[in-house]
Amino acid sequence: MSQTSGNGVGAIDLEKIQKNSDGSITGVAKSAFNEVVVNNPYFAAGGGLMLLGTTLAVARHGIVKSSGFFYRQLLVDLEIPSKDKSYLWFLEWMSRYKHRSSRHLSVETNYVQHDNGAITTKFSLVPGPGKHLIKYQGAYMLINRERSGKLIDMTNGSPFETVTLTTLYRDRFLFQSLLDEAKKLALKAQEGKTVLFTSWGPEWRPFGQPRKKRMFGSVILDEGVGEAILNDVKDFMESGDWYHRRGIPYRRGYLLYGPPGSGKTSYIQALAGELDYNICILNLSENNLTDDRLNHLMNHIPERSILLLEDVDAAFNKREQSKEKGFTSGVTFSGLLNALDGVTSAEECITFMTTNHPDKLDPALMRPGRVDFKVFINNATEYQVRKMFLRFYEDEHELCDQFTRKYRDLGISDVSTAQLQGLFIYNKRNPQGAVDMVETLRRPSTVF
Ligand SMILES: Nc1ncnc2c1ncn2[C@@H]1O[C@H](COP(=O)(O)OP(=O)(O)OP(=O)(O)O)[C@@H](O)[C@H]1O
Ligand SMILES: [Mg+2]
Predict the structure, then answer these.
(1) What's the 434 CA to ligand 2 centre distance in angstroms?
(2) Where among 376, 397, 416 does a domain terminate?
(3) Residue 403 contacts by C-beta under 8 Å, 6 or more apart in sequence?
(4) Mutation choice for ligand 1 from 211, 262, 308, 378, CB with most ligand atoms inside 8 A
(5) Using one digit for the tens of pLDDT, what is the confidence trace for 399-423?
(6) Among 271, 281, 417, 425, which residue has the most ligand 1 atoms within 8 Å of its CB, making it the best to mutate?
């Protein structure tokens, strides 16, 4: 008769244990183990489940680890932070890229203020935050545009962003060609254009869309003046070695002074176009411009750019006038002098300043090293009158003679070139009209 410690299938059979053992203690233990663990179906089932669970857990861990490993081995990432120059280039490239599956776009709006004051708005549709899949030169790329929820760029109040490009390791060289393409596209948009930069916090940012270059010949200064400045700038640009060998800071300052509307600003724009340079405009009367920021900005001018300080006299006179009102402009005169002296870039630094009142300028600003080339840009001379007339009305030599004679007879010398331009624009297709209206130049405030 068999003695069991319970009923049913899972009960332990003591007799069987005894029978299967050889009588020694180890024999009994072995036999008991076999009976309890191996032959017991409940235990076996539980053990099996446990083993299965453990195996799956190990496998899962393995898969996670190996996928990370394979990810690292097979895929490559490229991260472009929003602070980097190529960030905007890339977004622009992406918005124009045809083989793009995502339709998730966001809009970027640019205002462009034209010379005549008109404003046009341009919308660019760029890929919005999120994931986008593209196929580039036969390779798939996952593009993830992420916005940091917490970090904010203090200079413009926008959240920091990054774009991460992921592709197969074997296609990694495509990143380079993609970025090159994006850069080329961006630079092509600027071809034949002048980019205006303005200060934005401590950095320079393009202001609006690049403007069409102003033709050098379209600004008519008195005989030889425009060419003299151009030659001086060109000579300076070619003399890098000369400066470095003598240990002289490689910079040159120009001051264009004269009455309003004589073409100072226009000339600098045309000069930048001629040299294929951009323009960084700094407004010294800006309230939140401090000496530190000024210094930083002057030492981080984008390459191939002319620094333009307009109406240099106004910034400091305004400061004195408004002192009693408790208002002080951020930048001090000595701050400007130090910033001008402290420009330490290896690249050349060309600074242009304009003013209507050179007499109000402190001699300290005018000393060589800060201003090396001063040019008086006056109201229209007879030479300019003739040249401007023929520029507006090509080949009208006879009417040009009549116009100049009448102009001379008026006996006035304070006609600005801007005034002349106004008269010619009014008589756009009518040179005779311009000759007939020459009298109106007597009154600078004539409104046509
Ligand atoms: N010498 C010139 N040749 C051609 N256009 C001129 C000339 N002078 C002025 N103009 C025209 O007159 C307008 C005003 O010129 P601009 O802004 O260059 O004058 P400015 O000397 O900078 O005046 P301000 O001292 O008031 O700043 C522009 O539209 C420009 O085209
Ligand atoms: Mg001006």
Answers:
(1) 25
(2) 376
(3) 385, 389, 431, 434, 435, 438
(4) 262
(5) 999 999 999 999 888 899 999 999 9
(6) 417
Q: What is the pTM of this model?
A: 0.69
Ligand 1, atom 29, residue with closest C-alpha: 418
pLDDT tens digits, one per residue of 366-407: 999 899 999 999 999 999 999 999 999 999 999 999 999 999
pLDDT digits (tens, 9 = 90+) for 78-89: 999 888 878 888
Looking only at the bridges linking them, the beta strands covering 203-206 and 373-376 are unpaired
Give one DSSP letter per residue of 214-245, joined into a string.
Answer: PPGGGS--STTHHHHHHHHHHHHHT-HHHHHH
Q: What pLDDT score was predicted for residue 5?
A: 44
* Ligand 1 close to Cβ of residue 419 (< 6 A): no
Residue at 279: amino acid letter: I
Please indicate, yes or no, whether residues 336 and 396 belong to a single structural domain of this protein: no
Ligand 1 proximity of 266 Cβ (cutoff 6 Å): yes
> Is residue 21 assigned to a domain?
yes
Domain count, the chain: 4
